[in-house]
Amino acid sequence: MNRKSILVVDDSPSLREVVGITLRGAGYDVIEAADGRQALQRLDGRRIHLVVCDVNMPVMDGISFVREARKLPRYAFVPIIMLTTEWREESKLEGQMAGARAWMVKPFRPEQMLQAVARLVLP
After folding, report:
1. Domain count of the chain?
2. What phi and psi, each to the nearest 5 degrees, are found at residue 37?
3. Which residues face 7 on adjacent strands?
4. How many percent of the chain have pLDDT more than 90?
């Protein structure tokens, strides 16, 4: 069975590490990026089954990344979970309009993350 790949996008190395440990422990391959622009570079033709992305990042924020990723035919329908400190409804709506499928507020519980991933990850 091929392992599923998840792209984790966050400017915090410690948060990428915690999310990575959670996902790798559940059997996923993890690809990391520190901001939206670096994440777009990771969308280089390889198979990505899901993206977990922060909203507030330097260089390119998460909402801008989602909008740009949705323009790429190979990645237009890859599920994206926003993992952020943003809790306001306006932010959630903006993420949804950009193409995010789910919204999780930091700090997260690993089991909560794994449930959302299992529900949304591409086959």
Report:
1. 1
2. -65, -45
3. 31, 51
4. 88
